[in-house]
UniProtKB/TrEMBL annotation:
Lineage: Bacteria, Pseudomonadati, Thermodesulfobacteriota, Desulfobacteria, Desulfobacterales
Family matches, as CDD domains: Radical_SAM (cd01335)
Name of the protein: Radical SAM domain-containing protein
Ranges in a coiled coil: none
Keywords, in A-Z order: Iron, Iron-sulfur, Metal-binding, S-adenosyl-L-methionine
GO terms assigned for molecular function: catalytic activity; iron-sulfur cluster binding; metal ion binding
Domain Radical SAM core: 8-217
Stored InterPro entries: Aldolase_TIM (IPR013785), Elp3/MiaA/NifB-like_rSAM (IPR006638), Radical_SAM_PqqE_MftC-like (IPR050377), rSAM (IPR007197), rSAM_sf (IPR058240)
Keyword GTP-binding: no
Length: 340
């Protein structure tokens, strides 16, 4: 038996998504990193520490997720992790493509990192490597095995698009065999490379996003099968049921997406635009002027998320009289499935 719950937004839990560099060894076809908007620099450890301190002052037990680019390419990632621990962060996660540079698993202990989270976008080598690059499947699987064998809590992220949706079901036995403890199903966002119509992944199919019917048919089913192994499964809600209220995380949650050029966003869908509501200046967090993402959060539209309507309207649908058929949820609203 499994239980499904929608994880409500809360202002009491602060989540810091900290891109400490944008450099990466891979060139995934759906990469959301946009160097023009996010910078190309690698933050020195002193800046990482100062920015972690700024958020530790704002919130008692913030959670930090170290991201890139590929965060393990940062030679001082282990020191950044230890700094977050010293500052009493509630949890520390590292998202990685599996290459685990600088022997990171030997430089930190399982007590210091809550999760190493690996990205794999196909159950087969052929599919994953088509999206993420030659050799990345084997590297990621080897990285997961090493992480599990060293006693780290290990999770896996699978980003679903039209291209790899049919392999999601095949992930069920793989996820069990690998011994991971959390499985995140992500939905592809039309940003970064995915927003470029000339990108190879776009040319492979007319649109990348799965339809509402496909999403509702396949995702909850696969999630439930994985959860039956005792693995916690999380996936975005995406489509709200008619009785469910729409909420924008920009107004009712406390999430921060930090980039190495100092931009700090509250909404990931705004990251392709200079709409950040905060920025670091001399290591102090300051508000930006108008117009920023904050002005968009206030807009109340029948389709739900304003940014979704602006950048990925393909997932909306209208009745004959022109009214919206359903609302699209905030991209950060998640369903969580657990074994009872
Ligand atoms: S591993 Fe991540 S940062 Fe690197 S190319 Fe792929 S999606 Fe982009
Ligand atoms: S994704 Fe939409 S609903 Fe969520 S924070 Fe951004 S604008 Fe708000």
């Amino acid at each position: 038996m499994t239980t499904k719950k929608t994880v409500s937004f809360s202002k009491n839990s602060t989540n810091i998504f900290f891109h400490i560099l944008t450099r990466c060894n891979l060139r995934c076809q759906h990469c959301y990193i946009n160097p023009v908007q996010h910078g190309e620099n690698t933050l020195p450890l002193s800046t990482i520490a100062a920015w972690l301190e700024a958020f530790a002052e704002k919130s008692d037990r913030a959670n930090v997720i170290f991201l890139g680019g590929e965060p393990t390419l940062h030679p001082e990632l282990s020191h950044a992790i230890k700094k977050a621990r010293q500052l009493n962060y509630g949890s520390v996660t590292v998202d990685t493509n599996g290459y685990l540079f600088h022997d990171i698993l030997s430089k930190v202990k399982p007590e210091e990192v809550d999760y190493f989270s690996f990205s794999l976008d196909g159950a087969t080598r052929e599919m994953n490597d088509k999206i993420r690059g030659e050799g990345s499947y084997d590297k990621c699987i080897a990285g997961i095995r090493e992480s599990v064998s060293k006693g780290f809590a290990t999770s896996l992220i699978y980003t679903v698009s039209k291209v790899n949706l049919h392999e999601l079901e095949m992930m069920v036995p793989l996820v069990k065999e690998l011994g991971i403890s959390r499985f995140f199903i992500q939905v592809i966002g039309i940003r970064g490379k995915s927003a470029d119509p000339s990108a190879p992944l776009q040319e492979a199919c007319d649109k990348l996003q799965v339809s509402r019917e496909e999403w509702l048919d396949i995702i909850p089913n696969v999630a439930e099968k994985v959860a039956e192994f005792g693995i916690i499964v999380t996936y975005p809600k995406v489509f709200l049921d008619p009785e469910e209220a729409f909420e924008c995380a920009g107004l009712v949650a406390d999430n921060y997406f930090i980039f190495p050029n100092g931009r700090v966003y509250r909404c990931p869908l705004c990251e392709d635009f200079p709409l950040h509501s905060l920025r670091f200046e001399d290591n102090q967090l300051v508000r930006t002027g108008k117009i920023s993402e904050s002005d968009l959060f206030e807009l109340d539209i029948p389709e739900g998320c304003v940014m979704n309507k602006l950048i990925q309207p393909e997932n909306l649908s209208y009745k004959n009289d022109g009214t919206a058929e359903y609302k699209v949820a905030c991209c950060m609203l998640k369903e969580e499935i657990l074994q009872n």
